[in-house]
Every structure is written in C-alpha cells, then in structure tokens.
Amino acid sequence: MTIAAIVMAGSRPGPDPLLTGSGASTKALLPVAGQPMLVHVVRALRASPLVGPITLLAQNSAELAAEPGLAGLADLHFSDSGQGISSSLAAALPDDDAPVLVTTADNVLLTPSIIAEFLVGAEDSDVAVAMVERRVLLARYPESQRTWLKFRGGWWSGANLFRLRGRRVLPLLDFWGRIERDRKKGLKIIAAFGPWLLLGAVLRLFTIQQGIARAGLRFGLEARVVPMSEGEACIDADKPADIVLIERIMAGRNAS
Known about the structure:
By secondary structure, the chain is an alpha/beta fold. Helix content is 36%, strand content 22%. The protein contains 10 helices and 10 strands. It has helices spanning 37-47, 61-65, 85-92, 112-122, 134-140, 170-179, 186-192, 195-202, 208-217, 240-255; strands at 3-8, 31-32, 35-36, 51-58, 76-80, 99-104, 127-133, 149-151, 154-165, 223-227. Helix 3 (85-92) runs antiparallel to helix 6 and helix 7 runs antiparallel to helix 8 (195-202). The radius of gyration is 18 Å and the shape is globular.
C-alpha cells in the first residue's frame, strides 16, 4: 500500500525576503543547490516506494507544472489553492478517511529514509506530526536556529511532515485556520487548545507526546508525535542562513 502525498507550495501574503534579487517568482521555485526547492522535495517523495500520487498545491499551480525539473516524474497532479493553509489543505483531502502525507515545498532535505521513519511511527494515527528534539539537531548542527516548543523531557521543533486521516481531520483544520497566523508563537498555539494545556506546557507537567495526544482528544482524534532521529528533518529553508546550511549538507551527501 502507498500513501497519497500533498505538497504545500503556495506563497504567504506579503513580501518574502528570500526572493529579493533571486529572480524566482515564488519560494517553491527558489533555487537551492542548483534546483528549485520544490524539485528536491518532489523527487524525494517520488523516490520513496511508500508514496503514491503527489498533489502540488499553490495559488498558481500552472507555474509549477511548467518547471522543467518536474518533467517526467510520474503521478504528479497540480491544483490551485486559496490563501490559507488550512482551507487549501481541507479542499485537497480525499473524499473519505484515507490517510495522506503532507509536507511543504521548503522541506528541502527530505529523503526516502526520513519519509519511511515518519510513516512507520505515524501508522494507525488520525493525526501525526514529525518533530525533532533539540539535542538531536544540535548534536550535528549547533549553528541551526529553530523555533522550539518546551515540554517536560525536551525542546521540540516541527519537521514539516504530517499524516492526516482524510476528512476526519476537517474540524481540526477549521480550528487551525483561526489560529495559523500565530504558527510561530508556540505558547499562543498551545493556549488556543485551552487553559489546562497552556498551564501544563508552561509548568512542563507533561511531555510533548502527552500534550499532542490531549490536543487531539478535543477533536475526537488520536494524535501523535513522531520523534525523528535525523536532525536534518527539521531544517527547512526559512532564512538565508538555512539555505547556506542546507547546501552544505547536500554537498556532503553528494560527496558520500
């Protein structure tokens, strides 16, 4: 069995400093190590035997479909999205409860091994989120700057990989649409799930696994954190320094 994948490849409102002087019209097509970000991500998905059809979501999907680096890759589908992440994703979900794998166009260091580790850990969940604990990342890449969620037993950063069980997650996506503007503000996100979850996070009364599980219960969902063993899983291309680090990692991969 394979899982369908969705790649969120749209642009957020407002200017993106990464695009200044680059000549790229959208972040997904910004070159990294000689290829647009999106090409690296789609090729990693296509190289995984666990991934089936791939849908690319963007405000102007025809622009992505014209990218030469995607030519010849099987089972790619292009769909226009709206302005919001949650509403666009909700519209792209299957008509039933079939699971989908979701990632982003800036998840440039994605590999088949990262995909496999995540999907094994996410199996049978309604919602699964890939995350990297700070010690795992800093052991290899101490210069990497991420946004950390602090819980009992560790500090965690998201890895832009999600497994969603089809339309069962629509209430969660509707909720996320109301708070996604605060996606980089960890405590605001936690507070939106209720005062008990916020208090527990501030006082570190529970682990992130317990916190995510409790958040899922609010929507009747079995929600799970999948801890990733490779620090690269949470290094996405948000800042110029990220791209420098990503290109160094890619050069090392090619050399080996």
